[in-house]
Amino acid sequence: MTQDGRNVQGGFPTTRMRRLRYHPAVRNFVRDVTVSPGNLILPLFVRPGEKLRQPISAMPGHDQISPDLLPAEGKEIVDLGIGGVILFGIPATKDATGSDATSESGIIAEAVARLKDAVPDLLVITDVCFCEFTDHGHCGALVERRGQMDVDNDATLEMLAKQAVVHAKAGADMVAPSGMMDGMIAAIRGGLDFAGYEHLPIMSYAAKYASGFYGPFREAAESAPQFGDRRTYQMDPATAVGQALREVELDIQEGADLIMVKPALAYLDVVHAVAQAHPGVPLAAYNVSGEYSMVKAAAERGWIDEKAVALESLVAMRRAGAQIILTYWAKDVARWG
Ligand code: PBG
Q1: Catalytic: 162?
Q2: What ligand 1 atom has the least distance to the C-alpha of 129?
Q3: How would DSSP label each residue in 121-185?
Q4: Residue 26 lies in a domain
Q5: Looking at the chain, which terminus has fewer C-beta neighbours within 10 angstroms, N or C?
């Protein structure tokens, strides 16, 4: 306390948090969260063709590319120190059961083989789902119920197991089922084990919400549902965190090795709750297409600073408890240093 009494209650503060902020080195001491390229997974969109690089208009900086361009792309990604890639495919032809997805000569099987052959060090993950491969754009086979078409859960399980085995055979290092079918992890684990891929990890899109933030992705992957929406299988954004915890617990019981929450930014409460409930299970957050495109669009107009906002978003996901982030900014983060 000074003679004029400034440090008494109601006067000037004795505890000053700013003392931890004056010196850059002290700020560095008290920084807990980092984002490094090794934490990140970059999504890639692959379509049949030769020397094809087709810009995705809703996602500036990203293209659909043909398999022959993957070796160079993969080398660049490894050189940048990025943790891995996740592949999405646009097949030459779509049909009711998404048969390209379960074919050994399908677009993803080809993409994986090309990548692993040219860049064996690159971690190659495949998205295991049918929405990009079916002509109706839903995430599995359809069945009619109460006069409406819906995804047939159990028929889709067999298809998912087959798709995962095709990816494994092609050389995938990890599979990531994203269709939100009940029992999908058990079915895929069983299929992989039976085929001799018991070592292959599964990263489950365990808590995945029916989100408007996937809009730009559906252009990128040409996977928009041709009727209806995905609300009979993806989660309702208005459900409390408890349902996400049940989804996660079921997937862990069924054998998921890594867990994902998706989208990320509007669901950081879910990321945090899952991280707290399962500290021993690696947790990923998917920084989805809409989260990327909104920032890109605002930055193009000069309204916000892309780098600052992207890094702040990714730090927030790490602070909430995600060890791994799937993000369209992976290369930028590596380049920003
Ligand atoms: C389904 C899948 C989707 C995304 C990843 N996997 C789309 C969907 O569920 O409709 C979205 C990713 C993004 O928006 O970046 N295969």
Answers
A1: no
A2: 16
A3: TS-EEEEE-STTTBTT--SS-EEEETTEEEE-HHHHHHHHHHHHHHHHHHT-SEEEE-S--TTHH
A4: no
A5: C
